[in-house]
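Deliverable D4.2, example record:
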Amino acid sequence: MNNNSIIRRIRFIFDYSDSKMIELFEFAGKEVTRAEISDWLKKDDDEAFQALNDQKLAFFLNGMIVANRGKKDGEVPIVEKQLNNNIILRKLKIALELKDED
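Output generated by the structure prediction step:
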């Protein structure tokens, strides 16, 4: 599964609007446009499709964490340059405030 599929599924599961997704990126300190969001959400075979890199997905996931749990005092969330499934799942688990036993 690629990053675009992941962000598409997260958007569908949580019913995020474009505005909400832009807001989540801003919580992590990244400015994105509605056009960028739209291009990332397009199907892979669409001409306007743009691949979402690991760093931008990390910004989005960090924004989810900040939106759901709040920002830690003086601590800026780490934006990974490379993501793997374990990091993505860990960030989602933190954002949803789940414990290991959940």
